Amino acid sequence: MFRPRVAALLVLPLLSALACQGVEQKPPPAPKGKPARVMDKKGDAKGDAKVEGKEVEKRASQAADAKAFVDRVDGELRTLAVAAGKAEWDKNTNITDATEKAAADANEKLMEFMAKTIKEATTFTGSDIDPETARKLHLLKVSASPPPAPGDADKRKRLAELGAKMEGIYGKGKACEGTKCKDLGALEDIMASSRKYDELLKAWTGWHKIAVELRPLYQEFVGLANEGAKEIGYKDLGELWRAGYDMSPADFEKETERLWTQVQPLYNKLHCYVRGKLGDKYGKDKVPEAGLIPAHLLGNMWAQEWANIYPLVEPFPGAASLDVTAALKKAKYDEVKLVKLGESFFTSLGLDPLPATFWERSMLQKPKDREVVCHASAWDVDLNNDLRIKMCIKINQEDMVTVHHELGHNYYYHYYYTLPVLFQNGAHDGFHEAIGDAIALSITPAYLKQIGLIKDVPADEKGLINLQMQDALEKISFLPFGKLIDQWRWDVFSGKTAPEKYNEAWWALRAKYQGIAPPENRPDPEFFDAGAKYHIPANVPYTRYFLARILQFQFHKALCEASGHTGPLHECSIYGKTAAGDKLKAMLALGSSKPWPEAMAAITGTRQMDAGPMIEYFAPLEKWLDEQNQGKQCGW
């Protein structure tokens, strides 16, 4: 549950308040034909009353013990979580053997505490426990980060070592030819800009080699993490992850499928159009008309977002379109100015400025003197408004959006940091990921003009379709990837996918959901391509990102309505709308103190997740895609 307050790492899964309070046990009905209770002249009723009185006293004592327990845990947990947070920050911003060991030691202590605490939390039951205490108990019971550690001290230590080791291998990973090496940032630049098939293949295979070393470590990690999950009453770690959404694990899996069913038709239309354009560029022999798209041709190391291939698929070349990256560079944005831009959006809504310590303690550039984890993340290291981001910022549109995303986490931390530590989290982890992205949806052409980045707003339909294509290549393309990462892990944790089938299962899911294929044969056990994605070795649950892509549009629509917007959803910007800011702050301040449907209702007025606003937002593009795909064999 409590690793450092890092947006990409911290998880505090939830159960419903009803489940927290337990189910009141009613006495069995009396046999038919007999009174439920027979009293004689000797006063058995008084005896029964004494028994009942003792039972009431017992329940009251248990309730008091439960409250004292969670109060004590909250204080001890703060101390250990802050220590782990500081060690993790040091490791992420300076990867050395010493910082890896220090982080492993701090996380081992946290794991030991959590393993003991979770087991103790399961001993408190009863309907007399107050709702706040009951919720804290169940937030403890479904804690998933760090992974629950086995009771055996040596195994617990090894689990912590594996976590630190895998993150270190990933963070230091490079693709080398002789003495010439490229880190992930350099390889990502190639993936983003090159249009040479073989050059892309070389960059893709070079990075994926770094994961081979992770495979035996990950297999060992799975066994130990599952052992810890079983010791606290779950079948495996995947079931524990799925338990954190105010519904049963089985119902949550159904919920993700329901949401995917809503958005799958739109994804398939985008896939069909993009595949045709890539076939035109690279040849039908490399990109078949009715087959899978090779994973290295989509502009991203993991083919998770496709925005970088926009020039290849632009609907109306030459029509008005936005080059935000060029505008940022022309305006001489640097790393600090880009983050200031993000902060200014939040403050325009009436939210507080970032604390001065944010600017003193954040890592905004990649240091030249040491190895770091460049993967963007947001932190509250001391759990007391010690806000920071860690990011190797590049001055481009993608990182401008990422800055808003990370600041969304920071502002969530800011508005709930005064709550008890056990409530210092999002309503569910998808909420945390969605806040900044919902704000970024307001980075409309009209907003960019308002802040002076562009002079003219594209006003014709061609400009709109170009803009929506840019957005879809990021938002829509990501959806199946966001879902399948954890589907693969759930199957690994449950044993459905055996270790000798890791890579085969990985690519089967990528074919099923994404419609993509590896660019070459990738057999087991030679390869471990899942490990080339940060969230696998870092053990970060990923369904949160799938949910966030959907929730951001749901939040955006609600905030637009609060701001008085009446036009098409894709035209709305809430910049400067304090009414929207008030609604946002009310939800942020709840943290995880209430079940997520209540937080959802606070911002949207409904208690259900819904992809409808996302589909509404992209209605113009979907209509255009239908026209372009006529006569094509879509699907795979």
Describe this structure in words.
By secondary structure, this protein is mostly helical. It has helices spanning 17-21, 44-92, 97-121, 131-141, 153-171, 184-193, 197-208, 214-231, 237-242, 249-282, 310-313, 324-330, 335-348, 356-361, 397-416, 429-440, 445-450, 461-494, 502-514, 543-563, 578-588, 596-604, 612-617, 619-628, and strands spanning 5-6, 174-177, 180-183, 293-294, 377-380, 387-390, 516-517. The strands form three sheets. It has a three-stranded antiparallel sheet with strand order 1-5-6, with helices on both faces. Residues 1-42 have low confidence and may be disordered.
**How much of the polypeptide forms β-strand, as a percent range?**
under 5%
Helix content: 55-70%
Shape: globular
**How many β strands by DSSP?**
7
**Distance N to C terminus:** 40 Å
Structural class: mainly alpha
Mean pLDDT: 90
Radius of gyration: 26 Å
Helical segment count: 24
Please give the largest β-sheet. Answer: 3 strands, antiparallel
Q: Give the strand order of the largest sheet, numbering strands 1, 2, ... along the chain.
A: 1-5-6
Residue stretches low in confidence (pLDDT < 50, at least 5 long) are 1-42
Biased composition (Basic and acidic residues): 37-55
Region (Disordered): 23-55
Keywords: Disulfide bond, Glycoprotein, Signal
Organism: Nannocystis radixulma
Outline of this structure?
With 636 residues, this protein is mainly alpha-helical.
